[in-house]
Each structure stands twice: as C-alpha cells, then as structure tokens.
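G., the chain you wanted modeled:
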Amino acid sequence: MSNSDLFLYQAIEEYLDTLPKSERTIKGYRTGLHYLCVSLDDLEDFTIEEALKSAWKRPVTDLTPDVIESLLKQMRDKRTGISAATEHVYLIAIRGFLEYLHDERGVSLDLVRIKSLIKKRKRKAPTRLPHFPEDEIRKVIEYALESRDFASDDEKEQMIYLRDRAFVLTLADTGLRVHEACQLKRGQINWNEGNALIIGKGDKEALVRFSERSMRLLRVYLNARQHLDGSMGIPLSALPVFARHDRGAGRKVLAISTNTGRDIVARMVARSIGENYTQQITPHSFRHFFVTKVLRATQGNMRMAQEMARHKNIATTQVYTHLANPELDKTYHDIFNT
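Predicted structure as tokens:
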C-alpha cells in the first residue's frame, strides 16, 4: 500500500491496535487523534463526527506542520473545553501516531518541524495532587484481609469472591496498574522470592514485589481454582493469575479485562464501605495509596518510591511528596501543637 492509499481513519485504528495500553488510555488517545481529524478540515463548529466522515478518505500525507499548528490553536479555543492536562494527553497520542506513520509506515512527514511546533506551542500541563480517600482505602483492604462472612454453594460465586479479595490486595501492595494486574500470568510470579517479572508501561520489563499477605490471598484463590487450571491441558505458567468466572467463560480459564478489574474494585468497595464510594475509589487509587505508603515508610526517599512505582520521570513521584512528608508534618506539629 502506498502512502497515498493510506487513509487517516484507517491509520489511526491501526496505530491504536499496536499500543499495549489500557482501554481507558486508548479511549483518550482515540479522542485526541479525532481532534487531529478536525484540524484537517478546520471546522469552525468543531464537530468531530463531520471530521471523521472526511477522514475516511483523507490520505495521511495531508498531515503537514500547518495542520498541527491549526490543531494547537483549536485546542486553545474556549469552545472546545480542552484543558491543558487533556491537551497534554492528546498531544502524546498525536506525536506517537506521527512517529508511527514516519518510522513504521514510511510516510513522508516533516516530523522535525512538527515536533518543534508541538514543543514550543503546547500548554504546560498543570500539576495536580493525587486525590484518593486514604482512610476508606484502608477499610477496603481490611475487609479483604479479614472478611470471612461470604460463603456460597455456587462455585463460581465463591471463586469470584476469592479472586476479588486477592485482586484488591495485589493492587494495594504491589503498585501494579490495573491492566498489568489483569494481564499477569502464573508463570511470572516467583513464589519463593515473592516477586514477578512483568512487562510494564512502555513495553519495559520490571520486577514487582509482592507482600506476604497478598501472596497468601493469591494462594487461597489459586488453590480453590486448581481443578479448573488442571483441566485446561496447558502449562499452569501460561494461565492468567486472575481469571474470569462468568457464564461466558464456562470451564475455560481466561484472563479478566481491565473493565472487569474496575468492576472488581467497585464491588469490593461497595461491600466494605458502601456504594457511595464506588466513584471515588478506582484501581488507580490503590496505586496512589501504594506510592504514598512507600514515601512515608522511607522518610520521603523519592528514588526508592520511583523505583517501586516504576515512574519513568522522578517528577511524577515528586507530586506525592506533598502528601507524604514526615518532616513537614513534624515541623507543623512542633509549631502549632506544642
């Protein structure tokens, strides 16, 4: 297929299919790339639906520096309602897409000038403190650890309960992102060392450590599931750690999706502290909890927290120092409470 035969909408979908991202991230990237379609037609009313219709027949070679400049202007227009933080996500997607076209598909683009335009004219994404109800998360964790009140004659219901407990503890004590936990395979876990070698964000290998309590709940769940795993006729190492137990899965051992991972957290939150908190506590809330806990325990050692959280940039870890600074807490206490 020549460059002139590669149409924009088709290329966008092909690019998104190459990304090892969560469904939520893909959704955000797709929206950002749809705004790129808008900039091609310079639509004054910013109707994405109209832009996408024309994108079916627009060749990717139409993506010029002028188009990117128009896009940046449109994103600043108050009518679009795009914040600086959202713009930041969209531009990551667009830059990655253009690099994909240039490097993987051989499309001739003025990539140097385009990247320069984005770098010079993009808005600076504001820093936001991670927001999560820490005390309530502790209650969810305590429920997962101590609850013994659920029993069912239905094997699938019992399996779901054991899986959900183990899933929540895994998120809380490893700092895994939800899609990483959902994709975890049994063979990745070293049960003797209490860790797992995973493929994390950016397709990078990383060693993730498990607590004794999370390993304990994982063993309880996997032991209860052993008759299913054994009937699959494939090595246990190839099976997912967290499996589906719905009617659609039947007797097969299939990995859960990220949507199921979010449903698990919502279900555990509702059971332990009530439906009112299901919108406030998400899988990523447990990652915030994890990083904050590490910082507090290490007296604000950002390098240690960065390594455990697998943050590419230490600036991401620094945001948490406002939430976990023992020295500031002590100083404040000494000034105002003594």
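The chain has 16 helices and three strands.

Shout if anything looks off.
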